[in-house]
Amino acid sequence: MKKRILYGLVMAISAAFLGGCATGMKAPIIGGIYTNTTGPEMATSNIAGSKTGTSTCEAILGIATGDCSIETAMKNGGIKKIHFVDSKVKNVLGIYVEYTTKVHGE
Which H or E run includes 82? Predict the structure, then answer.
């Protein structure tokens, strides 16, 4: 009985560790070995603008840094009114993960 509990605990911890931060990322599809996908986050009824702004976060070996917020992407692109927001996820074995927010607007 104790072996089963220990085995279950080890499996749960391993799954959480191996999943890394990539499992928390929103993407249309997440590959177990490699991911490089772009997908929608949100859209508004505003007319499409000509400006684009991006913001990026990344994680290497489980240490995550950066600011991938919509607010930062708006500042980086000089955007006042959002038309739509996309996100891009790049993941290599959970060792390297990059998340980019791309805001389109005027």
Answer: strand 82-92
